[in-house]
Structure formats: structure tokens, C-alpha cells
Amino acid sequence: DAKTTQPPSMDCAEGRAANLPCNHSTISGNEYVYWYRQIHSQGPQYIIHGLKNNETNEMASLIITEDRKSSTLILPHATLRDTAVYYCIVSRNTDKLIFGTGTRLQVFP
Amino acid sequence: SAVISQKPSRDICQRGTSLTIQCQVDSQVTMMFWYRQQPGQSLTLIATANQGSEATYESGFVIDKFPISRPNLTFSTLTVSNMSPEDSSIYLCSVLDRGDTEAFFGQGTRLTVV
User: Fold this and answer.
1) Strands A70-75 and A18-23
2) Which residue of A lies nearest to B43 if distances are taken between CA atoms?
3) Which of B2, B4, B92, B108 is the most exposed place for a label (fewest CB within 10 A)?
4) What is the pLDDT of residues A40-98, one digit of tens each?
């Protein structure tokens, strides 16, 4: 599975959009981009995934560049409860999720 | 969605002893996984628990240290054997049903070895 690179930490004001980048330059054609988050003292929680097209659900939007070498997770209106570590994972399937170091997002009032 | 119950939620153990962690799911699932999260670190996959056969271990993890059972499609156990302080971590169970894209995680077992 391809390796991902994420910034170690980011800040975001409450109510603003949080844009979390992820680089996956070695992604192969059949690999998906998954995003999970881990709120303190909880197990990871699925957010969204995509292959080529941009995706949106009730939690977030996922923007994947045309060359698929990078992606951005967008939380449109961040709240304090969105403070968490966000993991970008590239995998052919969900059978084996290999977690990187993630981005620690701090939402402040 | 799957609801996962892990027991115990936390424990403090003496070095040299063993602890068995249980993972119970409220529905039958195809795949179950065990992860370790060391203090301040990301999650590391230990093994895939296979129903009716030996678990599949990731590099760096061995059956003698982390024996795993999976007697049916809703239950698995992970044993941390001959514990040392370096085994102090959160151990998490994860499940996935075939065809699903969303994996579910338990709340984890916080283990401290003294």
C-alpha cells in the first residue's frame, strides 16, 4: 500500500472550514483514499473514502487531485468536537488499514 | 453499523503475567483485526483474526507473544503474554464485513504493565 504524508498538526477556528491535506504520490490505480479520525480516548471513526472522484457525505468532503497524488479532507464548518487526529490511508481495500502518523487538528473557539 | 464491546476497558498488570482481551461484536462480521497503539503513537496492526484458523500476523508480531483466538464470527480474544512495561499500550479491536468499506473500532483496552 502506498505511503501517505500529512502535516503533524493544524489549527482551525470554530465555524470555519478545516482543510486537511494528504500526499500520496505513489498511489496506484486500484488504491482508494480513506480518511479516519480518532477523538481522544476513543477508537478511530470512519469519515469518508474515494477512488478518483470527489466525494461528499454528512461529515465531510474529499477532494482528490486529477493525478491522484494528493487529496484534501474538508470539514465545512468545524466545531470543537472535531478536534481529533485525522488519518489519511491509501489501500486497495479495507482489509488492512495501515495507519500513518496523521494530522492533529485543534479547533479553537 | 457494528457495535463492538471490548473487555476489560483498562487494566494494570504485573510484568511476567498475561492478559486476555475480549472483543464481542453485535453482529456477524467477516473480518476482525487487532491493533496496538503505544503512548502518543499511531495505530499498528498486530494481526488479522481468522475464524477457524490461525491468525495472520504482521511483521514484528508473533503468535507466542500475542496469541489470538476467533471461535466464531462475533468474538475474538487477544492475549498479551509474558508482559513487560514495553507492552503498555492501548489495544484495539476492529471489524469489517465483506463488501463494506467502513471498518469499526472498539473503544480499546488501556493496558499498563508495572
Assistant:
1) antiparallel
2) A99
3) B2
4) 989 999 999 999 989 999 999 999 999 999 999 999 999 999 999 999 999 887 678 88
Instruction: State whether B102 and A94 contact (CB < 8 Å).
Output: yes
**What is the b/e burial string over A12-26, where b = at least 16 CB atoms within 10 angstroms of the residue's CB?**
beeeeebebebbbee
- DSSP-derived letter for residue B68 is E
Residue of B nearest to A93 (CA): B101
From chain B, pick out residues whose CB is under 8 angstroms from the CB of A87: 42
Length of chain A (residues): 109
Cα separation, B23 vs A105, in Å, equals 29
Mutation target vs A (from B29, B105, B109, B110; most A CBs, 10 A cutoff) = B105
Burial B11-32 (b: 16+ CB within 10 A, else e): eebeeeeebebbbebeeebebb
Strand partners, A32: A91
Q: Nearest by CB to A46, which of B31, B103, B106? A: B103
pLDDT single digits (tens) B22-79: 999 999 998 999 999 999 999 999 999 988 889 999 999 999 999 999 999 999 999 9
